[in-house]
Amino acid sequence: MLYITGHKNPDTDSICSAIVLAHFLDGAPARLGELNPETEFVLKKFGVMEPELIKSAKDKEIILVDHAEKSQSLDDLDDGKLIGIIDHHKIGITTSEPILYIAKPVGSTATVISELYFRGMMEFIGGKNKELKPDLAGLLLSAILSDTILFKSVTTTDIDRELAEKLAEIAGINDIYAYGMEMLKAKSTVGSMDPEEIVNMDYKDFEFNGKKVGIGQVEVIDVSEVEAKKQDIYKALEEKFKEGYDLILFLITDIMKEGSEVLVVGNKEAFEKAFNVKLNNNSIFLDGVMSRKKQVVPPLEKYYMQ
Amino acid sequence: MLYITGHKNPDTDSICSAIVLAHFLDGAPARLGELNPETEFVLKKFGVMEPELIKSAKDKEIILVDHAEKSQSLDDLDDGKLIGIIDHHKIGITTSEPILYIAKPVGSTATVISELYFRGMMEFIGGKNKELKPDLAGLLLSAILSDTILFKSVTTTDIDRELAEKLAEIAGINDIYAYGMEMLKAKSTVGSMDPEEIVNMDYKDFEFNGKKVGIGQVEVIDVSEVEAKKQDIYKALEEKFKEGYDLILFLITDIMKEGSEVLVVGNKEAFEKAFNVKLNNNSIFLDGVMSRKKQVVPPLEKYYMQ
Asked: Where along this sequence does the record place binding of Mn(2+) 2 (chains A, B) (predicted)?
């Protein structure tokens, strides 16, 4: 049985890309954890069921979407049969056999899947030439808007904007910006969440030169709700740090200000050298930094690989 | 400037895929070493110039074809800007930034490129919708025939056969099998080569769990010419072994018998355990084994990763 799955602590791109790709490949969409409030909002909005929660790769054929990093995937990924990856991140995985790999440096995995669809390329990846219905177009649109933070992230490309418009037309969304703000607000309901939930909502593990590094992120329109919980979030990070980390970063991304406050636990020297900055105690605001993938991971990896 | 390059000790697939892809992407085809007799025959047959020899990635944008393994690429690959990989091997490379990656588990890289062309997908990889002229179709056909050893290798898929026929039509090759035999015979001119040349003609380095493993291969229609030089080839392998290897294998693949005699230097226990066989002194004939990628690398890697 073929399963399509995004990464742990799934975000909207991971969930929506898995659902749409499973539709075209006749596989089952899967998730590795609970949905965040934004993704819940999106699935409800377009009337689509949440994917099945899976905990093991055993006896499964697996296609990964939205990640190419073992530390972000099923713990026993090697016990299953990895047959493909559709992604927009760096290559962080090696295999012992040839597989299907489709990746482009664009704003979201949903962008890659949308382009495959609009160019009539589903057969190239072993899928069927089906029609993209409004509900699934809505999921892909939401994933693009979520991952590019309404086209504000540096990861945004022309093709993200172009395809978002085509998808919006199919999905019947007239005002992309208004819909995007509505969706991001759903994500920003951190007021009712406890610190651990906020930290884990969009949290990814990396391994750089044998060192374990965790990077969490929350994107908010109104930063005051998170600000109020900053001390508690930092405590939750310190607790997590005991699980063998060298460094943990947590980005509180201010969508309106277009920058991120970074909370740093652990190897502060690594952070300061990688970004060439000086921390104010445990944190610093990095103007213009909104993308973990493009602006946070590369300098860190470069530092650790030295 | 954009360069498209295959692997070290280039084979027909590496050279022809680089030339054709460079045509569609408006880049320059490059090679990392001397052409083998088969590839020389192919370029002469279709009247295409050999690619430029390059020795450094510095100040270059690079797209890799037919490999995804640092040990098989430019020594200073990290000094250039790797922007893409088009391949049909296992993933053996990681990156620090997102790149274009198109891979499928098919018989050759030329198959992937041909499918991209026939499905009108060149724009998806940033290329132009140009026409595939007979000379370039001939190169892609030759690469498919070479890598699948005339469709006899276990790596062969239906799509390899299908696309080869379409390419043959454009290239004006009426009898694919007859052309393939003619081409393979050119490769088999090992009679006039010295042992080092035979070993290096199609030789690839791998790193498994920190251990350096080299695997060379020669495919012949008439095995007697190589048989006569076996002692000298083994001596050449022993010489090479001094360069920090844990294990070196050399496959003398008998195209007619559809199997390979494997010469083994170094960690013989690793070889015997990985393949669950007993060596006769330094070698063994493995019936049905013709593909390094699919039948030799995976069991070895599995053994070393234990």
From this structure: 13, 66, 88, 147
